[in-house]
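Write out a sequence, fold above all:
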Amino acid sequence: MKFFGSKKYDSLTQLVTACQRYDPSAQTVFYDRYKSKLTGVCRRYAKTVMEADDIFQEAFIRIFNNIQDLKDPEAADSWVKVTVIRTAINYYHRTTKAQEMLGSLDQMEIQLESDDYEKMIDQLNVNDLLTIINELPDKYRTVINLHLIDGYSHVEIGEMLSMSDATARSQFMRGRNMLLKKLESKGIVHHENF
């Protein structure tokens, strides 16, 4: 049993149900439950900490406005995470130049097709990796986060970012190659015999 202030919630279901009744103390507990973990998710998609905080706040406005639609309170964790990621994607759409998103990509062959990048990434500490990913241009950073970290397919990424899955795949490959170059410049290199 978890106690929060003068209220207690024995389960996530009780907490969500109280939020659906617009109980302010339950909303505070619910917000605090996700703040540290999902603010980190927002930071992966934002350029600055302030932008990440804005994304998180906007996501929680949406969450509290739509919590009545949550039919299975035990699914709240995944519902909240998806809402936060979609809010970050919407933020990306609003702040990225339309021509950058819709610009044509040439169909050059991607030379690096191995899984070396995964071995390189395993050598880094998570904070260092996120710092390097944040150095990528917006369109690549977003696709890298969605695919490598959040596990979305290229088709799903294409739908989220309003582009074809081929464009999502191409941006991922280019972003991955940029990431590899940045990793190599930091001394993290792939081995030819992998």
Q: What stands out?
A: The radius of gyration is 19 Å.
